[in-house]
Design brief:
With 961 residues, the chain is mainly beta. It contains 14 helices and 48 strands.
Length: 961
C-alpha cells in the first residue's frame, strides 16, 4: 500500500462510520453460569471474547477469570504476577529474566509466542512497548484492576490480528467513589529482594451521578536478588557437573593459548574458565511510577462522553559478569610494548599459517605502521575485563496513552460507542561497563607502555600480556579510555479509531424469549516503530559482550477493518433443549503491508437440561507480521550451543566431518584445535524479512460446563483445545540446522547440505564465535513454520457454607497433549511438551494445576492456601549437543509450591493481608547452565518456571473511605 492510501483509509473509515452511525461498548459479554455461580450471588459478570453485550446471551469460548479475591491474595507488584502462573500460560520475559531481558513483562498464551496474543485494557488495545509489538504488562494500573479475563485461541475475529493464541483483558473498576490507599511490603527469608508497592486512588461521582472521575497514582520498587546469594547458582555448572563458566578469563589467551607474564604457557588450547554466575540477577530490580485518570459524563440521556489517560515511567536494571574479548579477532601489532619476545614467538607460532621466527622478531622491533617490518595480524583474543566491573544496563521506559469517545443508547435494544486512542512508548537502553572494540584496538597499537600511536580521545595503552590467573593488570587510565557508555532508544506508537453498533433484533427471538444479539463496526489502526542508536550500539561487534548490535531503523503500517458478530438463540425451555444457540463472527482486514485477509468464527452451545451445557467454537485467525519481523536489520548475535561438532578432536580422523567443517570456513590447519563455544554460546545471524505474509491459525474448542442445581456451589468445566498455526513467521532452531548437517551423533552423517551451508565459521580458528565476520548459524525468517498445540483445560470450583462462614476449593489445570514446532518443511517437527533445552523454551509441562483452598470466617478473615503443581520434565532428546550429561541434569521431578495467605478485616475501613510464598522453601531443580538459552536457563535452573527466591513474606495494608 502506498503512502497515499493512509489518507484514503481514513476517508474510508469516516464513510464507514457515517454509514453505521454509532457504536457499541467495546469488549464485554455475559459468560456462562459457572462464573455467575462462582461469584457468590454477585451481579452477572461481564466477560471478554465478544462485543455483544446482551447479558442474556452466552458465548461459546471458555474464559479464565482472576477476580478481586485472587488478586488480593497474590499481592502482586505488577500485572504479570496476576496471571503469569495460570496453567496454559507460559513464561514470557519478566523479573526472572536477566541475560536476555528487554526490560518488559510479556504474556505468552499456550506457549505460541509473546507476539501472538493481545493485552487489552477494558477491551481496547494498548500501545506496544517493543518493536516486536509486545505489550509491557508493567504499564497496567494494578490498583484499579477489578478482574482479569483470559480467553485462549482464535480471538482475531473479535479483536483483530495478534490474537491468534488469545487475549488477556484487564477490566478496570467503574464508577469508583471515595479514597483507597494501599501499601505492600515483601522480602525474602534471606533478607534480599525487597518489594514495595504503594497506591492512592481517589474517585467521585458528580452532578447527581451523571458523571464520575477517578485518579490513581502508584509507585513500585523491586530490589535485586543476585545469583551469588543462592546456593544453586554460585557456580556456573557444565553438563557433566564441572564448575566451568566461560572460557574467557584472566590472564589473556591469544589464539587459544593462555600465557603468564613471564611468557610461560598456562595451557595450550585449554584456557582458564571464568565463573560468571555470581554477577547475574535472579530478580531484576525495578522502579516504576504510574498515574491513571478517567472521567465520564452523561451529557443528555443516550449520550455519554468519556476519556482516560495513563502514564508510566519505569526503570529496569540488568547486570552481567564483566565484559571481555570473547574470541573475536583483534588487530594485534607484534610490536606491542607489553609482549615479551617469548610470548610474541608463541603467538606467531599459533596461527594456522605460522609466522616464521625471524619475521616475528623483526615485527617486534618495528617502530610503527610505516615500518616495512610492521605486522599486525588478526588474532583471536580471549580476556575477561574484570577491571571494568560488571556490565550494567538501565532500561528506562516512558509510556503514555489517551482515550476519548462517546457512547450511549439509541433505543432500549441498540447501543453505540465511538472512540479514538493514541499512545506512545519510548524505551532507552543505556549500557555502562561494556567497553568498545575499536578503542581496545587503538590501545593495543602503542609505542610505549604509556603512549598510543594514535593518542586521540585520551588513548592509554592496554596491557593484555601480563597478570596471573587471578590478577588484574590493566591500568585504570586504559579502562577509562575503552569503557565508554553506549545505547539506543526504541520508540513505538499506536493510533486507533473505532466505531461500533451493538444490540438485539427486537425484544425476542424467532422461537425464544431471548433476542438475537449482534455487533458491527469498523476500526482503523496505525502502528509506527523506530530505533535510534548511537554509533557504537549500531555497529556490529563494537560493544564488547553485547551479542547483536542494535542498528537504527524504522517502519510503519496501518490497517482498516470491518467486523460483525451474531449470537442466535434457537431453542429454549423445551424438553431436551433448555438452551440452544449459535454464534458467528467475521472480520475483514486491509493491511498496508500484507493486503486483505479474513478471519471468522462459528460455534454454539447446547444445554439439554439446566446446569449442563456443551459448547464449541471453530475459528480461523490471521496475524500480519509486526514491524520488527518486517524491518529489523539482519545482524549477528548469540544463540546457545554447549558443544561444537567441529571442536577439539571430534573431527580428527573423520574425513566427512572434517570436509564439512572446512567447507564452512574453518582453516584446514585448525582441525583438531577448534575451540568449544565461549560460555556455551555461538554466533547466529538473523533479522527481519519485508516479504513476510500473514500467518493463519485454525482453532477448535469443545467443552462441557456443569453447574448442577442438585449441588449448589459446584462448577465444573472441561474444554479441549487445538490450535494450529500455518505460515508461521519463524526462524529455525539451532537443532534444525545442526542435526541435519552433522547428524544426531555429531559425526558428519547428516543428510542436508543446505543446513551445512547455513553455518559460517571463524576464518582464523574455525570456531563459531567471533565478530560479525563469523556468521555462525544463519537463521532466515520465513513464513514456512508450523506450530500446533492441543490439550485439555479443566476447572472445578466448589463452595459450601459453614456455620461460621464458608469453604471454597478452586482447581484450575491444563493437560497439554502436544506442542509441535517445525520452522521449515525440512526442519524437525519438534515436540516440546515435557522437555527443556535450547529448542524448547520457555518450558511447557505436560500437566500443571493450581488449587486454592480458602476458609472464610464470616466477615472477619480469610485463610487461603494455594498449591501450584508442575509436572516433571526431561532433557529434549532431539538436541544433538548434550553428550556426557549427568543423569540428575537430564530430568526434573514434579514441583509443588505452597503459598499461605491470611486476610483480616481489622475494621470497616481497614484490612491487612499477610502471605508466605513458597511456604516449604522448595529449592529449584539443578539442570546446569548450559542446557538452554541464557534468557531462560540461568543460575543452573529455569527461574521463569521454578521458584529461585525461596521462602518470602509480604504484607499489605489497605485503607478505604
Amino acid at each position: 500500500m502506498t503512502s497515499l492510501t493512509r489518507t484514503q483509509s481514513l476517508r474510508r473509515l469516516l464513510l464507514g462510520t457515517a454509514a453505521i452511525g454509532f457504536a457499541s461498548t467495546p469488549a464485554f459479554a455475559q459468560d456462562s453460569e459457572e462464573l455467575a455461580a462462582a461469584s457468590s450471588n454477585q451481579p452477572a459478570i461481564i466477560v471478554t471474547g465478544t462485543r455483544i453485550t446482551n447479558p442474556n446471551l452466552e458465548q461459546s469460548s471458555p474464559i479464565q477469570v482472576v477476580g478481586q479475591d485472587e488478586m488480593d491474595f497474590r499481592q502482586a507488584t505488577n500485572a504479570e504476577e496476576l496471571i503469569g502462573e495460570l496453567p496454559g500460560i507460559a513464561p514470557g520475559t519478566n523479573s526472572s529474566v536477566n541475560n536476555g531481558s528487554n526490560g518488559t513483562a510479556s504474556l505468552n498464551l499456550r506457549n505460541l509466542g509473546t507476539g501472538r496474543n493481545l493485552v487489552l485494557l477494558d477491551g481496547t488495545r494498548l500501545v506496544p512497548s517493543t518493536i516486536g509489538s509486545r505489550t509491557d504488562l508493567n504499564i497496567i494500573p494494578v490498583a484499579l484492576v477489578e478482574r482479569v479475563e483470559v480467553i485462549t485461541g482464535g480471538a482475531s475475529s473479535v479483536y483483530g490480528a495478534d490474537a491468534i493464541s488469545g487475549v488477556a483483558n484487564f477490566v478496570l473498576r467503574r464508577d469508583f467513589e471515595g479514597m483507597e490507599a494501599a501499601m505492600t511490603y515483601g522480602i525474602t527469608e534471606r533478607g534480599d529482594g525487597e518489594r514495595i508497592r504503594a497506591d492512592l486512588t481517589l474517585g467521585a461521582n458528580f452532578d447527581d451521578g451523571r458523571g464520575n472521575a477517578v485518579l490513581s497514582m502508584g509507585y513500585q520498587e523491586v530490589d535485586d536478588v543476585l545469583q551469588s546469594n543462592r546456593t544453586i547458582s554460585q557456580n556456573a555448572l557444565f553438563l557433566g557437573g564441572q564448575q566451568v563458566g566461560s572460557g574467557t578469563s584472566v590472564p589473556t589467551a591469544f589464539n587459544g593459548n593462555q600465557y603468564l607474564q613471564d611468557g610461560s604457557a598456562l595451557g595450550v588450547g585449554t584456557p582458564n574458565t571464568f565463573n560468571y554466575a555470581p554477577f547475574n540477577f535472579f530478580q531484576t530490580p525495578l522502579e516504576r511510577w504510574n498515574i491513571f485518570g478517567s472521567a465520564r459524563y452523561e451529557v443528555t440521556p443516550g449520550i455519554e462522553v468519556y476519556s482516560r489517560a495513563m502514564f508510566t515511567n519505569s526503570t529496569v536494571s540488568l547486570r552481567l559478569a564483566p565484559s571481555g574479548l570473547f574470541g573475536a579477532p583483534f588487530t594485534l601489532p607484534l610490536n606491542n610494548p607489553f609482549l615479551t619476545e617469548t610470548v610474541r614467538q608463541q603467538i606467531c607460532a599459533s596461527f594456522a599459517t605460522p609466522i616464521d621466527p625471524a619475521t616475528c622478531t623483526a615485527a617486534g622491533q618495528a617502530t610503527g605502521p610505516g615500518d616495512p617490518n610492521y605486522l599486525a595480524p588478526q588474532t583471536i583474543i580471549n580476556r575477561r575485563l574484570v577491571e571494568q566491573g560488571p556490565r550494567n544496563s538501565d532500561i528506562v521506559t516512558n509510556q503514555f496513552q489517551v482515550w476519548a469517545g462517546f457512547r450511549g443508547d439509541l433505543s432500549p435494544t441498540l447501543s453505540y460507542d465511538v472512540y479514538a486512542t493514541y499512545g506512545e512508548s519510548q524505551r532507552t537502553i543505556t549500557r555502562v561497563g561494556w567497553g568498545l572494540k575499536s578503542r581496545i584496538e587503538q590501545a593495543l597499537n602503542a609505542t610505549s607502555p604509556t603512549t598510543c600511536f594514535d593518542p586521540s580521545n585520551g588513548c592509554f595503552p592496554i596491557n593484555l600480556a601480563g597478570g596471573g590467573p587471578a590478577g588484574t593488570n590493566i591500568d585504570p587510565r586504559s579502562v577509562a579510555f575503552f569503557n565508554q557508555p553506549s545505547g539506543f532508544t526504541d520508540s513505538t506508537s499506536l493510533a486507533v479509531v473505532n466505531a461500533s453498533l451493538n444490540g438485539t433484533f427486537g425484544e425476542t427471538g424467532f422461537f425464544t424469549e431471548t433476542p438475537i444479539g449482534f455487533a458491527v463496526g469498523v476500526e482503523y489502526r496505525d502502528y509506527g516503530a523506530s530505533r535510534v542508536a548511537d554509533v557504537s550500539a549500531g555497529t556490529q561487534g563494537e560493544v564488547l559482550g553485547s551479542g547483536a548490535p542494535a542498528p537504527t531503523f524504522n517502519g510503519q503500517y496501518d490497517v482498516i477493518e470491518g467486523f460483525a458478530e451474531l449470537i442466535v438463540p434457537i431453542l429454549e425451555d423445551v424438553p431436551g433443549f433448555y438452551s440452544l444457540q449459535a454464534e458467528g463472527g467475521i472480520r475483514v482486514s486491509d493491511y498496508s503491508n500484507t493486503g486483505t485477509s479474513v478471519t471468522w468464527k462459528a460455534g454454539g452451545s447446547w444445554e439439554p437440561f439446566e446446569g449442563f451445557r456443551f459448547r464449541g467454537i471453530y475459528s480461523v485467525s490471521v496475524r500480519s507480521p509486526n514491524i520488527g519481523e518486517l524491518f529489523a536489520p539482519v545482524t549477528t548475535g548469540l544463540t546457545p550451543l554447549p558443544t561444537d561438532p567441529c571442536a577439539g578432536a571430534n573431527p580428527v580422523g573423520n574425513a566427512t566431518l572434517t570436509a564439512i567443517c572446512v567447507a564452512q570456513g574453518a582453516p584446514a590447519a585448525a582441525i583438531g584445535a577448534i575451540p568449544q563455544p565461549s560460555a556455551a554460546q555461538i554466533n547466529a545471524t538473523t533479522g527481519g524479512n519485508v516479504n513476510l505474509d500473514v500467518e493463519e491459525a485454525d482453532s477448535i474448542t469443545l467443552g462441557l460446563v456443569a453447574t448442577p442445581p442438585q449441588v449448589p456451589g459446584l462448577v465444573v468445566s472441561v474444554d479441549y483445545f487445538n490450535i494450529k498455526v500455518t505460515g508461521a513467521s519463524s526462524v529455525p532452531t539451532p537443532g534444525d540446522i545442526l542435526i541435519p548437517c552433522y547428524g544426531a551423533n555429531s559425526d558428519g552423517n547428516g543428510t542436508d547440505p543446505t543446513a551445512c551451508a547455513s553455518i559460517g565459521r571463524n576464518p582464523i580458528n574455525g570456531s563459531l564465535n567471533g565478530g560479525g565476520e563469523t556468521l555462525g548459524l544463519i537463521l532466515q525468517r520465513s513464513n514456512l513454520g508450523v506450530i500446533e498445540t492441543s490439550g485439555v483445560d479443566f476447572r472445578v470450583n466448589y463452595t459450601f457454607p459453614l456455620s461460621f462462614g464458608g469453604l471454597n476449593f478452586d482447581l484450575n489445570g491444563t493437560w497439554t497433549d502436544e506442542l509441535l514446532f517445525q520452522a521449515t518443511p525440512l526442519s524437525i517437527n519438534r515436540e516440546c511438551v515435557g522437555f527443556y533445552g535450547g529448542n524448547c523454551e520457555p518450558l511447557t509441562p505436560e500437566w500443571a494445576f493450581n488449587l486454592r483452598t480458602t476458609l472464610s470466617i464470616d466477615d472477619i478473615a480469610d485463610i487461603s492456601l494455594l498449591w501450584r503443581w508442575i509436572d516433571g520434565m526431561g532433557l529434549e532428546p532431539l538436541n544433538g549437543a548434550f553428550g556426557n550429561t549427568l543423569p540428575e541434569y537430564a530430568a526434573t521431578d514434579d514441583a509443588s509450591y505452597f503459598d499461605l495467605t491470611v486476610r483480616s478485616n481489622v475494621s470497616e475501613n481497614f484490612d491487612v493481608t499477610f502471605s508466605v510464598q513458597n511456604l516449604l522453601d522448595r529449592d529449584p531443580p539443578n539442570v546446569s547452565s548450559f542446557i538452554g538459552s541464557s534468557a531462560f536457563n540461568s543460575g543452573n535452573t529455569y527461574p521463569t518456571t521454578y521458584d529461585t527466591l525461596g521462602r518470602r513474606y509480604s504484607v499489605t495494608g489497605r485503607l478505604r473511605f
